[in-house]
Amino acid sequence: DIMWPDFVCVVCLIIVHFQPTQAANTQTVSAFVIIDVQECFLEGGNLAVKDGNAVIEVINRIREKWQRFFTLTVLTKDWHCKEHVSFASSHSSRKPFEDVELNYTLKGELCSEAGGTVPGTVDCKGPTKTVAQKLWPDHCIANVTSGGTSSNLAKGLKTYDTDIVVIKGDNCQRDSYSAFWDNGNFSSTALHGTLKSYGVTTVYMVGLALDYCVFESAKDAKHLGYNTFVIRDATRPVDNTTGDSAVSTMLRAGVNVITSQQLDKLM
Ligand code: VGL
Ligand code: ZN
Question: Is the ipTM of this complex over 0.85?
Answer without folding.
Answer: yes
